[in-house]
């Protein structure tokens, strides 16, 4: 049942600077599943990601965002994080002067409400870094300062591993990555897949889905989810692009 799902988005309408971008999005992400959201540029994919996390720029005019039965629309971003939502940014921000180790400790304290003892935290970090095949020296570097595109994305996956969200939103994680970096980042995400985590991968291209096999795929066009399916839908989009779906939608509307 939808009510038992981790994340339920119902008839979500969102304005940005007075312009309606999302026009009635409906989507359900259970824990234990990976869903991919695809669509051409300008369809509203990143708007959905930032709205789910509570960015103040995005005005919800109608609809609900429900996490484990609770409507979270009135919650601030930090409160949403404490409810188990995690957003991996398309363009992670650099924070010169703040080490990854200190940043991760503060993030864990902020989300979980208490500071973890140093030895326990160190053991947890080492366990997750081993799982993600990351070197210990990573912790001494400043957050995203001088990082390659792949390193920035791996840093976010490490955050996700430590924060242990129930819903992870990956906003165009494949953006700017070469093939080797994409493979490494995908391996990290696959290592964290499991029954307690629901993942929404937002992407424009198929290539990341060659490494992370989604359970379901959804197509967002002009602010609405217009098609859902499985692996065959990804293959059709790769072979034919989005034009055929656009034409089907227009035909259904009598245009």
Task: Explain what you see.
The chain has 255 residues and is α/β, with parallel strands linked by helices. The protein has one domain (2-252): Rossmann fold, CATH 3.40.50.300. The protein has helices at residues 45-53, 77-82, 100-112, 118-131, 149-163, 179-192, 231-240, 243-252, and strands at 7-16, 19-29, 34-38, 58-67, 70-71, 85-88, 95-99, 142-143, 167-171, 198-203, 216-221, 224-229. It has a 6-stranded mixed β-sheet, with helices on both faces. The longest helix is centred in the middle third of the chain and has 15 residues, at 149-163. It is globular and about 65 Å long.
List the helices and strands and how they pair.
Elements: E1 7-16, E2 19-29, E3 34-38, H1 45-53, E4 58-67, E5 70-71, H2 77-82, E6 85-88, E7 95-99, H3 100-112, H4 118-131, E8 142-143, H5 149-163, E9 167-171, H6 179-192, E10 198-203, E11 216-221, E12 224-229, H7 231-240, H8 243-252
Parallel strand pairs: 3-10, 3-11, 6-9, 9-10
Antiparallel strand pairs: 1-2, 1-4, 4-5, 7-8, 11-12
Helix pairs in contact: 3-5, 5-6
Element order: H for helix, E for strand: EEEHEEHEEHHEHEHEEEHH
The strand count comes to: 12
The overall number of domains is 1
- Mean pLDDT, all residues: 92
For the biggest β-sheet, the strand order reads: 6-9-10-3-11-12
> Quick one: CATH superfamily?
P-loop containing nucleotide triphosphate hydrolases
Low-confidence stretches: none
Q: Assign an overall shape.
A: globular
CATH class: Alpha Beta
Largest sheet: 6 strands, mixed
CATH topology: Rossmann fold
Give helix % range. Answer: 25-40%
Helix-and-strand structural type: alpha/beta
Provide a count of the helices: 8
**CATH-derived architecture:** 3-Layer(aba) Sandwich
């Amino acid at each position: 049942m939808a009510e038992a799902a981790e994340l339920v988005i119902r008839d979500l309408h969102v304005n940005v600077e007075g312009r309606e971008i999302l026009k009635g999005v409906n989507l359900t992400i259970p824990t234990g599943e990976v869903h991919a959201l695809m669509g051409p540029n300008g369809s509203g994919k990143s708007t959905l990601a930032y709205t789910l996390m509570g960015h103040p720029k995005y005005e919800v005019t109608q609809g609900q965002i429900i996490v484990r039965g609770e409507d979270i629309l009135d919650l601030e971003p930090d409160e949403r994080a404490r409810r188990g939502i995690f957003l991996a940014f398309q363009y992670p921000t650099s924070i010169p002067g703040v080490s990854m180790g200190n940043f991760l400790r503060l993030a864990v304290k902020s989300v979980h409400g208490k500071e973890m003892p140093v030895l326990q935290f160190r053991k947890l970090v080492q366990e997750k870094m081993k799982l993600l095949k990351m070197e210990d020296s990573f912790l001494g570097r400043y957050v995203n300062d001088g990082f390659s595109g792949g390193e920035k994305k791996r840093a976010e996956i490490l955050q996700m591993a430590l924060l242990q969200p129930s819903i992870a939103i990956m906003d165009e994680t494949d953006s700017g990555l070469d093939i080797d970096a994409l493979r490494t980042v995908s391996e990290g995400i696959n290592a964290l897949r499991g029954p307690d985590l629901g993942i929404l991968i937002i992407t424009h291209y198929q290539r990341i889905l060659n490494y992370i096999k989604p359970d379901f795929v959804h197509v967002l066009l002009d602010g609405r989810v217009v098609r859902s399916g499985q692996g065959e839908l990804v293959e059709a989009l790769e072979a034919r692009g989005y034009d055929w779906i656009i034409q089907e939608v227009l035909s259904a509307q009598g245009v």
